[in-house]
Structures are given as structure tokens and as C-alpha cells.
Amino acid sequence: MNKRRLRLGTVPYLPNAFIEDKPLGEGNARYILPPKPNVSAMISGTELWLVVLFCEIANCTTEIMIASEWGNVLDNGTKFGLLGAPAKREVDITLAGLYTWYSSFQHLAFSAVHSRSGCTCIVAKPRIIANWRTPFLSFTGSLWGAVLAAFVAGAFAVLVMSRSRQRILQLGEATRYTFSDSVLIMIGFFMEQGVPMPNELIASCLLFATLMFAGFMIGSSYNGGLASTMIVPQYEKSINTVHDLAETRTTWVGVTVNWLFSIQLAYQPDMLTLLTTFREWEEGEISRRAHERTVAIIVERMEYGHVAHPQMELDAMKGRKMMAEDIYWESVVGMCSKTWPARARFDRLVLDLKAFGILAHWELIGVARYLSFKSQQILRYSRKTSGDEFTPLRMANITGALLILLAGLSLSLVVFVTELAWYWCGPRIKRCVAACLIKCSVRFIRKRARPTGREV
């Protein structure tokens, strides 16, 4: 190319694109936007190395334009940002983690695919559920509702059976069950305890046999679930899939709105929900708020096993885990003007490098240089557990039972004191209320009987 210019557009995006200032003569490119006449640029990164190698082979001079945003090319012809630069012929090619977006294909040409990328999120790791909730973890919410319905229906059936039995057998009032008796009988069945079961009538035998079997099954199921929840640590529900991310309406954030370009035309309900819950944050804000548990942070799963992520503290990263699946995946390309004459030669170079495994090596070098192997290790094993799933029983495991006991004792004490107060003060209160009612009635009658003073 006889030292002809190759105008490259990019935005800083690690490890794909990295630009730093160097003294004149020490860089491998020169700035065209923003103009910096006194320094040269050193461009590197997994994608920009393609241009560096291409210019070394084709004998061209690299000029770099750094855009402030990824931008877009709209249907009305508006062009701005990195994607608008080749459409306006300001640059020849742009590279910075760009995907095969349909909206861009209508105005720009794509280079050969040089990698595959998956868009996913790192979400907050689930916390261990508080020990006081242990007695309630054996059943789900809907199952607890079914158990409560069965309990109420059984207590009502026992109450009706008792009154029917008294009427049929002409028994005394002492043999009739009260409401509290019915409740205690059902508690005995569910707790697998012995309860009195009258057997004079076949209907009562069938009823008590049914209740005994149901209570045995419910009690056994509860005991089995309680044993597992007390030994195996229970965690909060975590976000593992795209459906979980959409169902919880968790805010997922990225450094640019271009993350949505790949799902803008999607019609699936989950994708439509994700379009409304996405927020664009600066990288500094993502780093500051990385500890927030209500936020999912976008990361890029690269082709050869590494992860591109925003800059954040390792402590914040340790409190997160990667989702089990990608939100979507895309092919990574370069975007150029449709009339760029060197595109075919550049594509051949990309395909050769991919076939020889050079791009896999570049990805490893880029991650080691611009990210860190420590962060890669944290994210790679973020879904792994410690392996020590079973824990011995401790005092904390019966916290829920102790709280239930304390609540029951407190409630019974309050009711007992109320009953005593009513026993001692009840008659006096009744007399006072009756006297007040009598006085009010007398005053009302006298007022109605008082003459108006008018003559007819």
C-alpha cells in the first residue's frame, strides 16, 4: 500500500482495544481525532493487533480516531459515534467489540468474523437463609396454603361430626367437641400423636381414619424436609437463567446502550422485559456500585474461555457469580465503509490468523496484560461451591423453634392476664356500661316527652 493511510476508529474497551500516548517515533499509530501533534499512539489489544499486523504486512500507516461513544447509524440518516464514523467516511474500519447488528449492516460493511462473544451477567451470590426460618422451609408457600386448608377443613369436619354424633346417639353436652377441641385433635393428627377417636358410627370411623392417614403423610413429609433443611445449608433463590433475570426485574447495567442492539427486534416476553430493565452506567459508576445486590453487571464471555468485564474491585467480584447461560451470543466483526478497497485482503488475514490459532493466543495475552488472571479465576469458579455441603447441627438450627416457643408463651401470658383482668373487672365494667345505657335512655325519653311550648 506504499505507506498509505489506514484510518482506524475505536473506543477503549479492554482487552479488545487499548490506546496510550507515546513520545513521537515510539508509537505505532498517529492521532487524527482528537488531534495530538506532539505525541504518537501505541495501539494494542486483541482486536487492534489485527490492524497493527495488517499494516506491517501491507505497508500502510495507521491513523487512530478515538470516539467518545459507540454511537449508531439511524434510519433517518443520522450518524454519530464510533459506528457513524465509517458511514461518514471519517475512518476506514472500526474495531471495539462490535457485533453483527442488523441496524448497522444496512449502512456499513462487515469484516470477516474473528471471534464469538456471549453476553451474560454477573449477579449477587445468594445468601444463606436465616436460621429462624428453618421450621418454615420444609414446605413451599403453596404447600403451606394447602396444609392450612386441610387443617381448617379437618377441624370443621370433626366439629360437625361431634354434633351429629351427639344428636344421633342422644348423648350429653359433655361429649360434644368444642372448636378448641377440634383444633387440638387436628394438631394431634398432624403431629402424629394419639387422639381420642369415637367409633360408635361408621362415618366417624371413616373420618378419623382419613384424618389419621393425611396427618401421618403430612407429618412425615414435614419431618423429612426439616431434616434436610437443618443439615444442608439453604440459600436464597439466585438468578441463573435469562428467565430468572427477567422475572425478578433485576436492573442489568452496561457501559453502553449498544448491548441492546442484538435484542431490539426480539419478541420473546423475557427479552421484552430486559429491554425495559437495562440501564446505561459509566464504568466508574459500575465500579462504585458493584457491591449492590440489586444490580446485575454485564460481562462478555469471550471465545476462548476468558471474560471481559468492567473495572471493579476484587472483593466486589468475589460477591458475584456468573449466570448459567448467556442472554445472547454474537459474532464479533470489524465495521468499515462499503467502499474500503482493502477489506478483502484484511478478511484473508483474519481468517488465516484464526485458522492458525493466533487469535486464541492474543486473547490470552490481552487478558493477562489488561485484566488479570485473578479476576478470571474468580469469575471462572464463581459458580463452584466449597464442597462442604453438610454441616453439623448447632444451636442456631433450633432458633426458629425457640422463637415459636417464645411467641407462644408470650401470647398465652397476654391472653391469661387479659382473662384475669376480665374476670376481676368484667362485672364492674358491665355494671358501668349498663348504668350508662340506662342514663342515656332516660335522658332520651325525657327529651322526647318534654312539651314544645307551642299551642295548637
Automatic annotation (TrEMBL):
Segments forming domain Ionotropic glutamate receptor C-terminal: 142-409
Pfam families found in the cross-reference section: Lig_chan
SUPFAM superfamilies in the record: Periplasmic binding protein-like II (SSF53850)
Positions of transmembrane segments: 143-162, 201-222, 402-424
Record's subcellular location: Cell membrane
UniProt GO MF annotations: ligand-gated monoatomic ion channel activity
Family to which the UniProt record says this protein belongs: Belongs to the glutamate-gated ion channel (TC 1.A.10.1) family.
Protein name: Ionotropic glutamate receptor C-terminal domain-containing protein
